[in-house]
Amino acid sequence: MLANSYFWIGNGTTVLPGRACKQGSVLVKNGKILAVNEACPQGVTRIDAKGGYILPGFIDLHVHGGGGADFMDATPESVATVAIAHAKHGTTGLLATSMTSTNDVLEKMINSYLIAEEKGTGGAELLGLHLEGPYFSAKNKGAQPVKEQRIPTREELEYFIKLAKGRIVRWDEAPELENTDVFAQVMKENGIIASIAHTSAIAAQAYAAFDMGFSHITHFYSATTTGQKIDGLCYSGVNEATFLDDRITVELIADGRHIPREHMLLTYKIKGADKLALITDAMRAADTNDTQSILGAMDTGVPVVIKDNVAQLPDFSSYAGSVGTMDNALRVAHVRYGIPLVDVVKMMSLTPARIIGRSHDKGSLEVGKDADIVIMNNDFEVESVYVCGVEI
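and the corresponding structure tokens:
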């Protein structure tokens, strides 16, 4: 990492909340943004964006691994490897995501995260933990293992919350399970985002969960329900309920494989850039050339194959996480799908920051915020990345 406490980035298009400014600039001092779109003070180090784009750093709310490592490997070194791999692609902050596992594996994962957070990673900043499971529906498991899936209890929830020392930012659950009211109450008591995931719920169950305090949908469209017929009667699903409830935010896997163009555009049109975050849901094969890999812990995880730029179970019955990165997510949403750049950047930076309660210091190029900055060229390839003013 290259430290420079006082510098100016210019000769690029700055993308700010609601607008893009050609010939923009950002002045950084001691890890904070000091000024935006102002002339470079005399004597300050100048960094040339070479006519490209100066963007706020990307925040990935859902990522399992990359660079050949997974957070479930449960070592501080593996945490750092993931953070460095994704920082190369513009991610300046992330939530370390778990998956369904035995309690002892989850304990080790949480402890390794805490150590890595204290030491620093040399890559993307660790913004907290995202626990994906183990409270899911076997009917809509995706690549999540079934045998460790279970019903939440207050005792177990409080145990892991205490173990994590307040670093759990969000936790996922299928709301049709027993004790969903207990899950929602414990999340509310501890200020943790309750998110719906891997669910077979119908709309009525989703609405009930929203009223209990669930506020987010994990990888919307992926392992969530739409209209279905049950015992001869037609029911709407989680997707329809989510579209109709303005309280609910969503995330989409933006690897160009999980979500067809029309699905992303429809979600963008209905929920808007303020309620939609783009994620990678990347597993360990991201930022590698591997064709075979493991989802989850290396010794206990699920074997997968990488085909057509996506991780899949060996029988091709389900996707198993992506091998995408956030720079690719920008190219998918903006270049391929045509969503305006200002909104795409918001969905990758400010909206994720707002969802996790960090928009006061993260997510946009505004005075006083952390200097998390990505410089991209005109082909939207990453040239430089700064985390809190330090170049990676």
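(Above: one complete record from the training split.) The mean pLDDT is 95.
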